[in-house]
Hints:
Helices cover 14% and strands 35% of the residues. The protein has five helices and 14 strands.
Amino acid sequence: MSDEQGYDALGARLKEFEGRPAAVAGTGKDPVNAPMIRHWCEAMGDTNPAYTGPEAIAPPAMLQAWTMAGLSGHQDRTGAYDELLGLLDASGCTAVVATDCEQEYLRPLRPGDEVAFDTVIEEVSGRKTTKLGTGYFVTTRTDVRVGGEPAGTHRFRILKYAPAPRPPAAPQRSAEPGKPGALRPRPVVNRDNAGFWEGVAAHRLLIQRCTGCGTLRHPWLPGCNACGGLDWDTVEASGEGTVHSYVVMHHPHFPAFTESGTGPDGSDGGAGADGPYAVGLIELAEGVRMVSNVVGVPYDKVRVGLPVRLVFRRYDAELTLPVFRAVDR
Length: 329
């Protein structure tokens, strides 16, 4: 049987799983509760007052959190989902990546609510070829209830695939002509943060500002985490800041990260080719924080509260990054 026929036969078997339950009469491991809401809001930077106080509701996007199984798993699984994944594993589709989710909110969840849910295997796609490899998209739908009343629906989609063969690795280029070492990894630039990197290229550190409520935010996001507004402009950071927290990287040694770049004054980055080097969470004078290297001071002299100032450091012909140089008191 050819690979093509094998995939056709597998696809037909996988389609038989559509509509089968993956979990029946599942229950959340914990009631909706204020501590989990607080942790979520702190992690997301969401300060909406609706999520605090005696009349608090849970952030709607937490819908899935109340149904998650944790490390010990759920006892309400039917086995159909595991059987489906087993067939894919046996066919060589051993890798998995979550691709997207969709949520519908029908009523707010409040502390004390006991969550119940059912999960069904809603759809298995035909064979798809992606840059990652060839495989199948599997969509599950979870219907969430409280006291028998529908509360929301969560659809979750994964790609289960056979990894595509990797091309031979290209020889690494030197960071500087005639010098050994690997290029520093490139930042991921997308439609949400392109403006930030355009600013960096022009030696400007731009911070997003919500035009609705005036809240500053970093890293760049498509919407305001304070009021939810989608309209924004930018302000240019003064470059003044302090070290809010930091770590010192000792091992392993990655030459691309430990080799010094050069600043406008030709000075180095304060770390040798073997490190260690300090990575700081910098609180800017404007009130937002960002992660970057702390340079111009030995790594063991970095301290919380250390005043720093922005410099733009050139690491190679194509890459300039904002870093923070220690300022003498």
